[in-house]
Design a protein that fits this description.
single chain; mainly alpha; 2 helices; 95% helix
Length: 55
């Protein structure tokens, strides 16, 4: 019985760590990569915005 309780506590801690640190880290990383790729593939969109700010 104690092994089952320890197993569930460890499982809970693992999922808490995954949802609190690991998943957000990889999500931010992938969003940043997609954003950089989008900016690289569409420089004209961002060039127009920068020109409006300068004017």
């Amino acid at each position: 019985m104690i092994k089952a309780i320890v197993f569930f506590v460890v499982l809970y801690v693992v999922f808490r760590v995954l949802t609190a640190f690991v998943i957000p880290f990889f999500t931010k990383r992938s969003i940043r990569r997609y954003k950089d790729r989008f900016i690289k593939d569409n420089p004209d969109i961002f060039r127009e915005k920068n020109n409006e700010k300068d004017a």
